[in-house]
């Protein structure tokens, strides 16, 4: 190894470890369901994005296996050479139906979907108004485009309007885009899409909503854009196939001419191998399940509301979430980490999230209930929260 690299790695890894910021990863020994096995213990799992339990759904597992038998384990090429299987075409039709748009395009992940889509449309002569709490993949996608990034205060519509006015009236930019998460993953709050659309209309902004945490969860499962009835108003509806949908991948849903353009200009579509057939078949069936029935969605919300009520009654600060995402705000970073560690020892897996992921002094343990949790599991988790909360003086 080069000395320069070795010194760089040693210095920086040691610094992280000394500050207690080096993240040790616990492998899950088995499926990522409502209960998981980690380091030999069985724990109630409140950390996955497997909102509807579809990652471990038996029918979807069988559909994936059947597709592997028929098509093999890999797509064999990038989409534009001959990696487009009939399965991909069916998936994209299903995604368009799901999102109420003319067309859709799938990608290998939600992260690379943002890399793909933003830079296919925006360039150095453009500007992007970006909510300050947007996901890392949105930030990286914006950077890759080389457009001017203009952050606005989180969900602050006055700030957005002022910056939209300034950007469009300056005459400096060819195109201006506004970009936001649909549901913000750390607090569980929902973007103010009706106001964003109004501002976008006033200044002719391109609208881009990444609904990774909304699809399957809000809008009776159909997402945050649907929740507000704005399918005709949002230019880019982005989603992931890796959270509520339970598999892996990402997509853009929108007008046919937008999707046609992304198929010829978005680089991960052109230069990275297509999603594998087993995944594509399972995803298509998962989307169909969400279209056909709200049963899992309803169970998810029932569980979310139950967990929130239980923690709130004990005196925990659960923030202002509008979705099943349930932060338990502890404050101090060290205390938050100790809290999460004690939960683990007592039988609950819930990750601590601290600065720089969230602002200093707002350290939290984030709970992600799913449709697969039973009342008994949630009662047990709440009892463990009570025990640890009292022990650490977070509640009385
Ligand atoms: C999780 C997330 C992504 C990344 O999705 P993956 O499919 O896991 O790559 C993108 N955007 C937002 C807003 C997310 O929350």
Automatic annotation (TrEMBL):
It is an enzyme of class 2 (transferase). Residues 42-382 form the Aminotransferase class I/classII large domain. This is Glycine C-acetyltransferase. Homodimer. The keyword Lyase does not apply. GO terms for molecular function: glycine C-acetyltransferase activity; pyridoxal phosphate binding. Belongs to the class-II pyridoxal-phosphate-dependent aminotransferase family. Pfam families: Aminotran_1_2. Keywords: Acyltransferase, Pyridoxal phosphate, Transferase. Its EC number is 2.3.1.29. Its cofactor is pyridoxal 5'-phosphate. The keyword Transferase applies.
């Amino acid at each position: 190894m080069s000395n320069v690299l070795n010194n760089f790695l040693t210095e920086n890894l040691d610094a992280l470890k000394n500050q207690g910021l080096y993240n040790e990863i616990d492998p899950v020994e088995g499926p990522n369901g409502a209960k998981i096995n980690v380091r030999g213990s069985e724990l109630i799992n409140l950390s996955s994005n497997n909102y509807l339990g579809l990652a471990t759904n038996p029918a979807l597992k069988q559909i994936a296996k059947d597709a592997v038998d028929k098509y093999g384990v890999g797509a064999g090429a990038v989409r534009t050479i001959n990696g487009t299987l009939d399965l991909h075409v069916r998936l994209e039709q299903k995604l368009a139906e799901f999102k109420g748009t003319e067309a859709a395009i799938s990608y290998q992940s939600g992260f690379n979907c943002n890399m793909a889509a933003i830079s296919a449309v925006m360039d150095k002569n453009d500007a992007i108004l970006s909510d300050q709490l947007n996901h890392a993949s949105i930030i990286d996608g914006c950077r890759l485009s080389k457009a001017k990034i203009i952050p606005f205060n989180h969900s602050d519509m006055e700030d957005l309007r002022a910056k939209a006015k300034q950007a469009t009236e300056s005459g400096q930019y060819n195109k201006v885009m506004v970009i936001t998460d649909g549901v913000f993953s750390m607090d569980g709050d929902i973007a103010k899409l009706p106001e964003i659309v109004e501002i976008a209309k006033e200044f002719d902004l391109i609208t881009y909503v990444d609904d990774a945490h909304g699809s399957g969860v809000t809008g009776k499962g159909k997402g945050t854009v649907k929740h507000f009835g704005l399918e005709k108003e949002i230019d880019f509806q982005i989603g992931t196939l890796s959270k509520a949908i339970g598999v892996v991948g990402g997509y853009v849903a929108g007008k046919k001419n937008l999707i046609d353009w992304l198929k010829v200009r978005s680089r991960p579509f052109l230069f990275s191998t297509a999603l594998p057939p087993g995944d594509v078949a399972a995803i298509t069936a998962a989307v169909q399940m969400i279209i056909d029935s709200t049963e899992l969605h309803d169970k998810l919300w029932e569980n979310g509301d139950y967990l929130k009520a239980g923690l709130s009654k004990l005196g925990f600060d659960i923030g202002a979430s509008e979705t099943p995402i349930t932060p338990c705000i502890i404050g101090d970073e060290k205390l938050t980490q100790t809290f999460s560690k004690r939960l683990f020892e007592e039988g609950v897996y819930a990750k601590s999230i601290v600065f720089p992921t969230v602002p200093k002094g707002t350290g939290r343990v984030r709970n992600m209930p799913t449709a697969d949790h039973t009342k008994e599991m949630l009662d047990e988790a709440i009892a463990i929260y009570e025990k640890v909360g009292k022990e650490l003086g977070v509640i009385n």
